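hey can u check if this looks right to u? its 152 residues, i copy pasted from the old doc so theres a chance i mangled smth
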Amino acid sequence: MNPFYVVGYRILRAWWWLTRPYVLGVRVLVIRDGAVLLVKHSYRRNWYLPGGGPERGETLEAAGRREVQEETGTLLGEVKLHGVFTGFMEGCTDHVVVYVSEQVLDFDFRPSREIVEARFFALDALPEGTSPATRRRIEEHRAGTRGIAGAW
């Protein structure tokens, strides 16, 4: 793990605990041939869905597409809304919009300072260390549940 990113992430979490911000983010379930794309950050231990925050003037769908491309080198075709979720961890109110895409047009991952690994895993064989929220979103997708709202 990158020690500078780890320290920065811990400082950010402390700031969240003090200020209790509202955070808006997007994640994307990228599915290819029965496998889901997961990423591992340099500053966190678990596997997650790719995603991040929207930039000023950017739609949530565009943010999801951009984040997937930046983090994993993946270009997506059609993207659909999976659901909207809220979490209250790490001192902030986190609203996460999750999209799903089953049209991978290109995959060209190159490790970066932020993302050290990105791989496709079978939907029924997720790696140890997959985050609980990521597991929930994948199980919802497998069950055919979309457009739901609930806890992150």
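The helical segments are 3-19, 60-72, 132-143.
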